[in-house]
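Service request form, structural biology core

Requester: graduate student, group of Dr. S.
Request type: structure prediction, single chain
Budget code: on file
Notes: please return the result as structure tokens.

Sequence provided:
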Amino acid sequence: EIARASNLREVEKLLPDLPDASMLHHARHNDFSRWLLARNEVDFALSLKPYTIDDFTDASEIKRFLIERIRARRKDSRQGLVIEFDPEKFDSDTDFMKIGTGSLGGKARGLAFMSHQLGIDLSLSQKFPEIDITIPQTFVIATDGFNMFVEENKLFRLIEQDKMPDDAQVIEHFLKAELPRPLKMRLKAYIQNVHYPIAVRSSSLFEDAHYQPYAGLYKTYMLPNTDTSTEKRLERLITAVKLVYASTYLKAPRSYTQSTMHRTQDEEMAVVLQQITGTRHKNYFYPSISGVALSYNFYPIAHLKAEDGISYIALGLGKIVMDGGKTLRLCPKYPQFLPQFSMIDDILENSQKYFYALKMDEFPTHEKFFGIGEDPCLTKLYIADAKDHPAVRMLCSSFNMQDNRIRDHFSDKEFPVLTFANILKYNAFPLAEILSEVTALGVRWMGTSVEVEFAVDLPVEGVRSRPRFSLLQIRPMCEYKQKLGVTITEKEIKNALCHSTHSLGNGEYKDIRDIVYVDPKTFEANKTPLMAEEINKINAMFNDTGTKYVLIGPGRWGSSDRWLGIPVAWNDISNVGVMVETTIESIRADFSQGSHFFQNITALGISYITVEDKCNDFIDYDFLYSLEPATATRYLKHIRFDRSLKILVDGTTSQAVIMQDLGESETDIMDDIPVINANVGVNLP
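Core staff response, request fulfilled:
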């Protein structure tokens, strides 16, 4: 007797060391098929039956064939299942594992749901057989781990009796606290068996809920996981888990929670450890393409329909997409319709200039590794400096300065411009088709409009021959789609101080009598972080009164790219009732429906009004300048009106007006129109 195997996993482990003579003997007598039949693996056994020993050149080829088939069979048998983690029986081919008996949290629930659906709905794999469409390997620490950690270290005292600790204080306490020993031992078993880059992601109870998704409010950390020392890799993993736990008590989610019916004390945090999709080039690791696909487009233009959906794609890690950076917006149904790429100058102005990658060769100290700011394991690479990277060469076109032309192919001698022409124009990878299919399936699976985060790894010679499309997250979209809406008259438009034809929301806002606006006369594009600080201070003035206000300013609100808009966080604008995004010559940014900031705004029923200078939209700044400000800073003016403003948003036509309410009833507003009391939130249907 050479060896014994009682299950498929043991057979897979034994095959590489099985003597060739024994391999050929068992293959010749169909012993493998008989062994499978005896263990009720009937379909698997029948799939092997047509093969004979003559179909292979030698015993080694038979071994490789059997190992591949067994591995595929084991993965298929666990597709869509959440397997309890067992340190003694860790199986690296299991797609979804968890430890603990608590909840998976919102994000992990969505991943488990997608994994299950992909296991029973084979339409994607059948339609795209040459592409690996998968969910990255996922390991979830259930919420009971968080509860035990907080309880054992008495961390709940940080928020007792409405205490408001600052973020640095919260992080310090969480980092000093000890993880429960059982959890620490399981993380050690995990890190001993996993050697790929890891994303440590939040998955709270409230996260990705239908009406308040808490999108992007909690932390995610990327770990290269390449240190030769297991202990150091474990230490960094534990630190990351603690900091995801700590983000539960940070200011931004606390402020957001105050705008909902939830309490921070009721929040519980699960943690997702997810394999990062990507390829290593030199000391950098990142996917070829990442992005977010929405099944419903709030701002359709030209011939596009709302139901056609909208997607945002970028080179590199998805941070640039979710933070509202400069990405490419496209409709998967019409992937070559790119208004932002109409002219050469438009392409040069609007194309992505940099991307995020994971640094694989740097290991910051415990003190430096994590903090309130950016993850130091991530780096920003400019596309012009990464011309030798395979993904850059595959996705970029070339700009010739002499003849002012952009050619769809990449050239070392010309300036690279990220257009995704190979993908969108020449269909080197069927991205648009996959996005259409994925969002349509998501709508069918969830029964509502959905938003899907994804990453793509394109083939690289000598590294990977098959492209990979990874599904990273799915969540229901928060929609403003009421069938009955406000009727906005021509007279109201004429008398308005603000009118927009690109608005998101529905209803009539009551009890708002304050406008805070960024003064176009003093605006400086390089001073947007200072403006965010000023907004924070004015926003705090509304905490005591509990009232809401209209916030008006240029560019993309909440963008992490200071050159695209004012980089406010949620706690900077927690008392806003209506947001207005304007255009200004020094800042040009597309609508950013895919950012976490935008998702949270829409979820709370805050109308988002866009005023474009290329159409009939307007803001009457002359009128605002004629009013005495209640507060004025270097960049902001705060106007308080004697009466509540009249704010109407028509969800059916995307029109909105903001006007003084002079006490005259000019329109017959139907009783069943949603009326929004801005000081208590929106009553969603």
